[in-house]
Structure formats: C-alpha cells, structure tokens
Fold Leucine dehydrogenase.
Amino acid sequence: MNIMLSANESQTLDLFFQMREHEQVVFCLDEATGLRAIIAIHSTALGPALGGCRMYPYATTEEALADALRLSKGMTYKCLAADVDFGGGKAVIIGDPRKDKSPELFRAFGQFVASLGGRFYTGTDMGTTPDDFVHALKETNCIVGVPEAYGGSGDSSVPTAAGVVYGIQATNDVVFGSKHLHGKTYAVQGLGKVGKKVALRLLEEGADLYVCDLNEAAVEEVVAYGKQIGASVKPVNGTDIYRIEADVFVPCAFGGVINDETIAELRVKAVVGSANNQLADKRHARMLKEKGIVYAPDYIVNAGGLIQVADELYGANKERVLSKTKAIYDTLLVIYARAESEGMTTIEAADQFCEERLEKRKRRNHFFTHQKRPKWVVRH
Ligand SMILES: NC(=O)C1=CN([C@@H]2O[C@H](COP(=O)(O)OP(=O)(O)OC[C@H]3O[C@@H](n4cnc5c(N)ncnc54)[C@H](O)[C@@H]3O)[C@@H](O)[C@H]2O)C=CC1
Ligand SMILES: O=C(O)CCC(=O)C(=O)O
C-alpha cells in the first residue's frame, strides 16, 4: 500500500509522535466484554504511575487517546505538586457509563492493569465509582480508592472536594482579602461525586449558588438541600453557567471549559474547581489574567483524591489524608505569590514549581519496576 501524506500529516497521525512525551501507551481490547480502553503512562521517574480511570463515550479513538495523554501528563505534575512519590498515568475506557458497564468489563480492564506488573495504579475518575473497581480488584492489586469494606480508603472524591474547598478559601484570601466562604456567590458546573460535595459544603458555609448539571436529579438534590437550610440555589441551563455574574466559577465536570468563547463570557473574579485540564490551552491562563480573573491551577486544587489513594498504599488513614490535603491551601498561596512576583500566569508558576521539584527529586529517572522498590507493604 502506498498512501501519500504530507510530512505534517504523517507526523500528526503517527502514534509515536503523539506519545513522544510519554513512556508507554497501552491499547486494551476485549471483544467479549466490549472493553476498549487506553492506559497512558507519562512518567515513572519518581515512582509507579498513578491515576484514575475515566469512562466516557468518546466519539473517536483519537479523542480518547488525546484525553489519556493529556490527563496522564497532568498527573505527573499533580503528584509533584502534592508531594507524593508517584508518577503520572491515567486510563480511559471508551463507553457510556450509564449503559456500558458490567462486572466482566472491569475485570477485563483489571487484567490489563495487572499485565503492567506494578507500573500503573488506578481507581475512579469521571464516570467510574469505587464499586466498579471491586471487580477489577479481583484481577489485580494495583487498584486504589477501594471501598472501605474491602480494606481501602473509600471514595476519593471526599478529599478531592475538601481540597477544592481549601483552594477556594486560599483564592478568596488572595482575591477578596478573607478566606471565608460565606456571603459570596459561586457558579458550580457539575454536581457529580466532587461537585455535589463542594456545593453542599458551600451552602452549609452560607454561600449562594448557581448550579448546572445534565443530571436533573443531582440538581434537584442540591436545590432541595438549599431550601432545607434556607440558602439560595439557582439552577442554570448548560452553557448559561459561563455568563453568570458570581464571585467564583467552580468547574467540576469536564476539561477545556476555559477557552476563547467562555473567557469572553465569564463574569467572575476567580476560577477554582476540580475538573482536570480546565484550560483548553495554556494561553488561556494569560487571557484570564488579562481579564483580571484569578485562576487556581486545577492540578494543585484537585489533588485531594490523589493524596488519599496514594496514601492508601500505606494503609488507609483518614486523619493523615486530611492533614495532607490541607496543604493544598498553602501550596496555592505559594503559587499565587510566585506568579505575582515573577509576572507569570498561575499555571506557569505551578508548572515551574513542579519542574523544579522534579529536578531535585528524580534519581536516575529510569523505568520504575515495583520489584526494585517494594515500598508498599500493604499490597505486595
Ligand atoms: N473524583 C475525584 O476524586 C477527582 C475528580 N477530578 C475531576 O473532577 C471532575 C469531576 O469528577 P467526578 O465528580 O468524579 O465525576 P462524576 O462523573 O461523578 O461527575 C461529573 C458530573 O458532571 C456532569 N456533567 C457532565 N457534562 C456536563 C455538562 N456539559 N454540563 C454540566 N454538567 C455536566 C455529569 O452529569 C456528572 O454529574 C472531572 O473532571 C474529574 O477528572 C479530579 C481529581 C479527582
Ligand atoms: O482521585 C483518584 O481516585 C485518583 C487521582 C486522579 O486520577 C486524579 O486526581 O485525577
């Protein structure tokens, strides 16, 4: 076969070119269960790769690959920022979480994780729950965020939501001169595992909310809670959330929400949320800064889940996790101060902070194999 492609076209289509920043990408196909998954390992320089597994009905394999590559690279930075000895990895399962899940599918996925021999640990992300991974756990020990009934640390969205709240407090401190949550209006996008917990906590603290989610039941639940405690919760349809006049936009659904179109619409003073890869492109951080909107780097703010699942490998301990998650507040203040003093965007300051840490910490930067450093007594 002789297909003529321009140099640029063939480079962009070349899988090896696309994964040039990554160590390893694994394509997983199990026709019997319908499993189509991609595991991307960005770096094992500081330890085995760790990252959740997302389930989403990607329109194309290319879209799924791009998500896995970007998310796994983000995990390397998140591990560095949160100061845990893991590297960056992430998995995506192509499928609709409402229709395509089965115990067998997650067992098949677990077998692929097992085949990596300890180079990759995974657990929940958007579209997956700890219960899904109970099935994968039958095939591999490299599962984190395991339900408490199975000896794990449970739902990692609990510390993630706590970390987002610390992130909002640190940002309020810098933007409004007080870390208090009350008396402010927040526009929360996504009321799933993380977003709902953040929304409820903000309400309990005396905040007013605008909320949106495709899942009407989730919206109704938060509205009902607001009524119960006498707080204002206004549901908003879809993209209207970007046009709301509020103090803080709290994206807790999906990535790419900060882009040319939404920045033109945003009427908030700050953006702080759990969604991974909020910036469609790094240049959008500059655009936010020019518009006077403070951006809390996503991977600093949403590290609570990572902190818990990394910690779980030493044996579950909620107090330890909470105290480590609190550090998100201080780390964010360090990043804001660096960005201010160096005239950088907050994401530039965060990346620089992590890259300096990587330089200091990496030893020989060779491939990790768990046999070399059997640190996790719990599962090995
Ligand atoms: N679960 C965790 O501990 C962590 C989650 N994250 C990130 O936080 C985000 C949320 O994660 P989870 O709460 O775990 O996911 P989830 O799947 O439980 O919730 C996502 C919610 O967003 C809603 N949603 C989807 N599309 C929407 C749209 N167009 N408009 C409004 N709402 C929409 C869904 O209906 C769902 O309720 C994701 O980006 C995830 O990668 C990051 C770190 C840890
Ligand atoms: O939260 C988890 O369960 C794992 C960490 C992760 O995948 C993430 O922070 O995006």
